[in-house]
Amino acid sequence: MKKTLLIISAILLGAQIPAFSQVKPKIAKSEFLTSPDGAKEAWKNVRIGNRHYRHLKSGHMKIAAEFYNQALNYNNTNAALLYRTGVSELSASQNTNALAHLDEAYSLMGNAVAQDCQYRLAIAQQRNNQFDKALSNFESCADLMTNRFKQQYASDIELRKDQCNNGLQLKKELPRAISRTMPGNINTIAAEYAPVFGNVDSLLYITSRRFEGFKNRRNALNFEFFEDIYTSSPTNGVWSEAQRLARPINKRRNDATAAMDLTGTEMIIYRGKKGNGSLYSTERKADGNWKRPKRNVKFNKNNSKEVVLSFSNDSTHVIFSSDRKKDNLGGFDIFISNRNERGKWSKPVNFGAPVNSKYNEVSACFGAGDSIIYFASDNEKSVGGYDLMMSVNRNGEWQEPVNLGLQVNSGDDDQYFSLIPGNDRIGFYASKRAGGQGNFDIYQIMVINKAARQLPALPPLVAVNASKEPALPLEDPVVIKTMRMTIVKGVVTDWDSTKFLNAKIEITDNATNEVIETITTDPATGAYTVMLPSGKNYAMTVSSDGYMFHSENFNIPSTTKYQEITKNIRLLSMDPGSKVVLNNVFFDTGKANLRPESYGELNRLAEVFKLYPKLVIEISGHTDNQGSKATNNKLSLNRAKAVVDYMISIGVEKSHLIAKGYGPSQPRDTNKTPEGRQNNRRVEAKIISK
After folding, report:
1. Which residue has the higher pLDDT, 466 or 124?
2. Which parts of 245-285 are beta strand (E)?
3. Residue 665: how many CB atoms within 10 A of its CB?
4. Are residues 454 and 496 in the same domain?
5. In the chain, count of helices (H) and strands (E)?
6. Whose CB among 8, 511, 536, 623 lies 3.0–4.6 Å from 632's, allowing a Cys bridge?
7. What pLDDT does 655 receive?
């Protein structure tokens, strides 16, 4: 049985912006006030922002960013205000906005606005995965700093340069895991992290710092709201809005998710106080409520923080992170303890190199029969902040950790990885990546490094009794080897300018016309990733405001093994002349009877008429050049008419539709191959007027 315990410290772990000698460029009132209209309110917002900015705590900086942004509505060309806004947003992990504001501040005044403006801009670029730009700025910013600043920033800049080079290299490599946003309402503008899945009740237990906590009190250490435990449940793959657990689970300070046992009757939580905290256990009562939590056995050491605990599959080993001074390689290290036959735990020992380093290693958990360890680190193999990494045990030796890749990790913090109990491939983690709701958000993750997962079971890591080797069960290698999954990934851009688009992507099961997944692209990069299990025919529809939707068809036989498909998509604007291929409209061979699998695609096309009531569209049929021209012309027209008739039947006015048949006269591919002829047999929708 595998259980993972996440101990959340009173101070939320994360890669903070180095404070050093914090630069506080003065926002001169005489330069800021440009007109009498709204001047009083704008200057008030600046002053409130300044009061919070000087505290340099993440909670204060988040509030400072709110007031500074209101002031920017009055004057958005003041370099000092833009700088302070960007730095505040970096502290709050509002990375997309921070990049825009710091870029503008640097464009206006360079490092004249603040000695470290270029350095802060480079961090923002790194967090938004713009590793080439960030690397260039990191390399040049040190030359522009005074000796005092160089001494403070030098080591951090060198580390970040290594991380940017890692990011550039990882862009060329296949990832070892992939992730996707959680469909539904589980994430908010507050921080959500430390996901723990309850297999029995199918609830995801998370920790969040929301305004609705105990009397909305803030933690004095960081001025963030206190941690509380929430739950969310899935319905058809969509996660519900998370609900805060009542007393006796959540109380007046930090209460964080730790673990749920496989029976679903015991939950372990963490309760923190200033500088200290302990694990507590609670049991589910017959009526479904929870008993009052009681203090549990802990691995805490005085004057240190223990961050994460994870049990092995057979519960004979436990690993956790600690910043204890003795035997530490640096920062937080991973430690391991073993349980003997009497149930007593051995003295924890350092997991050692190469897993641990002079940097921080946290959020560790076992995987694949305990022959793999997953953890988060901010070391030189990261691309920025904490990254999820893995180390494999080969012949009793733990190998150099490897980064899970850019499908999972970003230039900001990625951690709190936990696998679903009984599943060594699927789980959840928390990330501050661009495009999220705010600060940490929960994401789903799937490990796809099959080769490493097929290692045999290995002896215990730290022997309690050298003559006794605990069983380390592995999944059937055949099951792992035949993971039948198709990964479709790419970017969505404007057809003409190739700018990245914030687009919605719907995946539909064509057999049932049911939308089985809805995701959005990363607004900063236009990137998307979808996972399609084998054995179905899928429609993928891509839409964005002001653009014609685009559709793709993926017919994936049940025998299809793991594969990756890169599909970059360019959307056409809603202008006359724009046309799209309706890739999910189907007919029987040589006939014009519309098959039911087509209804979903045409229903989506009908929705466009609701947005543009005056829209007129030409529906055109096309064939290959096999057979007589007259037969093909008739067939293509009849197919176009069949589409028009269906759309009229679902409420589209007849006057807004035109049916045309072009036969083989407008090929879009060669007619010399079966694939080319298939591409030529199509139905298109063309905008005539709007």
Report:
1. 124
2. 254-260, 266-273, 276-283
3. 13
4. no
5. 13, 36
6. 623
7. 94
